[in-house]
Write a structure and sequence with these properties.
This protein is mainly α. It is about 50% helix and about 10% strand. The chain contains seven helices and five strands, in the order H-E-E-H-H-E-E-H-E-H-H-H. A hairpin with a 5-residue loop joins strand 1 (about 35-40) and strand 2. The N and C termini lie far apart (about 60 Å).
């Protein structure tokens, strides 16, 4: 059923795919689709798909390490990121069977602490999702341990009612931009900029 709904959404959103692809190509050099190695169900690696929001050759960083004023964002990339439009190509990951609509966000291959804690708590029994319980409860503004606790809660209480609640809260967060960028990353970047200005 998930694959069917993902295919249906791709058909409905196909005009948006075309428009976004054109805007990305016009805005900056590089591919339209960004591919990245992630850790999926049972700890198996897979390739996640996103619309590219950053300049080419940007290192692989988890979203909680990226500041909203990061100069590596493209102009259109900031808009795509703000409204989570960059996540839409993950519908293809659902069709491939790599992901679900709802589940823990897939860890980056180099997020060692997150991967180890998820292994310990059995979180990898779940397919990663486009959105999840941790996403709607702090997103980038919670610690790795808090993320895993929220993932564990979802694993133990997974239900249709909880999924519907997550979907509703996801739409609310997309509209408000809640938790989109890490406040810690923003503070560190601000402190770094202030230090540079003092040194000059």
């Amino acid at each position: 059923m998930e694959r069917f709904f993902a295919f249906l959404l791709i058909c409905i959103l196909s005009p948006l795919f075309v428009v976004v692809a054109l805007l990305i190509k016009i805005d900056s050099p590089g591919p339209v689709i960004f591919k990245q190695k992630r850790v999926g169900q049972y700890g198996n690696y897979f390739t996640i798909y996103k619309f590219r929001t950053m300049k080419i050759d940007t290192p692989d960083l988890p979203s909680d390490k990226i500041d909203k004023n990061d100069q590596r964002f493209t102009r259109i990339g900031k808009i795509l990121r703000r409204f989570s439009i960059d996540e839409i190509p993950q519908l293809f990951n659902i069709i491939k069977g790599d992901m679900s609509f709802i589940g823990p966000r897939p860890a980056l291959y180099n997020q060692v602490e997150l991967i180890n804690l998820r292994k310990k708590e059995g979180i990898f029994a779940l397919k990663p999702g486009i959105t999840g319980w941790a996403q709607v409860n702090g997103r980038d503004n919670i610690s790795i341990k808090e993320k895993v606790e929220l993932d564990k809660f979802y694993l133990q209480h997974k239900s249709l009612l909880l999924d519907l609640k997550i979907i509703f809260l996801t739409f609310v967060n997309v509209i408000t931009g809640s938790g989109l960028y890490s406040e810690k990353a923003t503070s560190l970047n601000k402190a770094s900029e202030e230090k540079k200005s003092i040194s000059f």
